[in-house]
From TrEMBL:
Protein's UniProt name: Shikimate dehydrogenase
InterPro entries: Aminoacid_DH-like_N_sf (IPR046346), NAD(P)-bd_dom_sf (IPR036291), Shikimate_DH-bd_N (IPR013708), Shikimate_DH_fam (IPR022893)
Domain Shikimate dehydrogenase substrate binding N-terminal: 12-97
Listed GO biological process terms: aromatic amino acid family biosynthetic process; chorismate biosynthetic process; shikimate metabolic process
Major enzyme class: oxidoreductase
Pfam family, one: Shikimate_dh_N
Keywords: Amino-acid biosynthesis, Aromatic amino acid biosynthesis, Oxidoreductase
Membrane-crossing residue ranges in chain numbering: none
An annotated GO cellular component: cytosol
MF annotations from Gene Ontology: NADP binding; shikimate 3-dehydrogenase (NADP+) activity
EC assignment: 1.1.1.25
Length: 288
């Protein structure tokens, strides 16, 4: 590949991303806007000792306009960028990197994506007490978005205690109306939150299972999951069977992709059109 090529080339770096719907959303939107637009997957599953900095340099040299970043690189990528957009300073993670003449510039479209979906799909949901599962790159974006959406008390559960404590401290500093507290495994049993949000990879095809014990999913107002493949995770299916309202990862996936498209192309995305592409996949992840 050469920088002389005329196509706008972008991609996604992550582990176990073969079923991602993001390439189709980007390429269909690019075609609709008359762009020669290519979206490539760089799946690190099975790779040993991935050097993210070298990989970014190689993609830049090959003519990529930018790259999306997903698990497990959303925080690691910050060590390899020259500039950070304002929302990255807040979230402390990036899912979108634009290659510029000044060097890689980090953005975060997860934050806006989740906030938009939550406000539209769970607009009237009670939010006095919410349990967030995960304080990594995606978890930070989701936790801060929940605070902005007016959650009263946010309990944060992550095996990395330091990560949970850092997120709680950042929420208290930036959103003083939200009480943010880490919670350990033993503390989960006594919680009775209005809602639960999964911001871990557990539930993905490559990470099957549930991030919490089934007993925690007693009938409660709502449960949300940012995983979108499968669209109905085991967590959401179990929650629905127990009478909870549910929110899948669809809305966040579409909106974060739309904002990333705008960063890469400099053109406004049609989120509705990108949602139609997202919905064109069947339950197995194949295009209809």
């Amino acid at each position: 590949m050469s920088k002389l090529r005329t196509a706008l080339v972008v991609g996604l770096i992550g582990e176990g991303i073969g079923a991602s719907r993001t390439p189709a959303m980007h390429e269909a939107e690019g075609a609709a806007q008359g762009l020669d637009y290519e979206y490539k997957l760089i799946d690190t599953a099975g790779m040993v000792d991935v050097d993210l900095g070298v990989l970014l340099l190689e993609l830049n040299d090959e003519g990529f306009r930018g790259i999306n970043v997903t698990h497990p690189f959303k925080q690691k990528v910050l060590a390899h960028v020259a500039e950070r957009a304002d929302e990255v300073a807040l979230v402390g993670a990036s899912n979108t990197v634009l290659f510029t003449e000044r060097g890689p510039r980090a953005h975060n479209t997860d934050y806006l994506g989740f906030l938009h979906a939550f406000r539209h799909e769970l607009a009237t949901a009670p939010r006095k007490r919410v349990l967030l599962l995960g304080a990594g790159g995606a978890g930070r974006a989701v936790g801060l978005a929940l605070a902005e959406a007016g959650v009263g008390t946010l309990f944060i559960r992550d095996n990395n205690v330091d990560a949970a404590e850092r997120l709680a401290a950042d929420i208290r500093e930036n959103f003083p109306w939200t009480v943010a507290e880490p919670v350990d495994a033993a503390g989960l049993a006594g919680l009775v939150p209005d809602g639960i949000v999964n911001a871990t990879p557990v539930g993905m095809v490559s990470h099957p299972g549930m991030p919490v014990a089934r007993d925690l999913l007693e009938p409660r107002p709502w449960v949300a999951d940012i995983v979108y493949f499968p669209l109905e995770t085991e967590l959401l299916r179990t929650a629905r069977e127990r009478g909870c309202a549910t929110m899948s990862g669809r809305g966040m996936a579409v909106m974060q992709a739309a904002k990333a498209f705008e960063i890469f192309s400099g053109k406004q995305a049609d989120a509705g059109r990108m949602a139609e592409t997202f919905d064109s996949f069947d339950a197995k992840g194949d295009r209809r």
